[in-house]
Amino acid sequence: MMQNKVTVKQRKFRKLEELNLIDNFLFQEMLSQKDIGEEFARILLSTILEKPIRKVKIVPQKSILGVDTDRHGVRLDAYIEDVSDELNGGMTDAEVVSDIYDMEPNLTYESENLPRRTRFYHGMIDTQFFEAGAAYDKLPNVIIIMILPYDPFGRNRMVYTIQNHCTEIPDLPYDDGAKKIFLYTKGTEGNPSQELKDMLKYIQKTTDDNVTNSDIASIHQFVHKVKLKKEVGINYMKSWEIEKMVRDEAYHEGYEEGRNQAKRINQLHIKLVEAGRIEEILKAAQDEEYQENLLKEFDL
Predict the structure, then answer these.
(1) What's the distance, CA 151 to chain centroid?
(2) Checking DSSP bridges between strand 74-87 and strand 141-148, what pairing results, if any?
(3) Is the pTM of this model over 0.85?
(4) Tens of pLDDT along 185-196?
(5) CA of 136: how far to CAs of 71, 95, 129, 133, 178, in Å?
(6) How far is residue 148's CA from residue 186's CA, in Å, rounded to a whole number?
């Protein structure tokens, strides 16, 4: 007899000092610290993009609402603005946003959903910046960066850079300012820089052994500083308690749902025996769709 099983993945509690940068909590705490967040982001972006980033502005945990109350919004884990001095016949004090980054680790192993998820992010960010009457050339470049401990596309590459292009003429210039970068921390294919390899290895496992250059050494100092902050420890315990509460609630709801389903199936077996249709019990156990049709037939 086949019965639906309720499975709940219990995540083992780890102390704050055991967290790696690939863990969302630590990554976000690093970005949210006023004294180190911008420098942390600047070093990461410079390493990932393989170009110097001079100054960034951090807006951690930025929520972008949908266009209406019943529309889906998005909460970006790390909303980063690349800010540069505007050149207008000479250097001025004005600051303009040239690039927008959403940079976040993703541990949910949702490779099938990532392309559409990042497409949605792009749309929501553009909507946020495009005011009525604004010129299209004022839209900033938007680069979404996902740092993943799993291979999103199964090609074992460390870097997957996705941009729109013309299908008929692949080399036709088409720059709409939208880009997605998926970083697989364990990838071996392609030719990423040694600096990026080392950085992703450190993000995956944030230990002394993986400090191999001055940039990582700076970040490692930031990590130690953040982990020692009392308020960070309090935030971590609160986040764990909230997660545990949600997980326990989901478990009990799933457990009750599983019990109810088991009762329905047991009643179905009784009905089938009473109707002289014993052979259909095995068929129902092997075919969930057939079983569901039988449940509907007997109004169970």
Answers:
(1) 13
(2) unpaired
(3) no
(4) 999 999 999 999
(5) 24, 19, 11, 9, 13
(6) 9
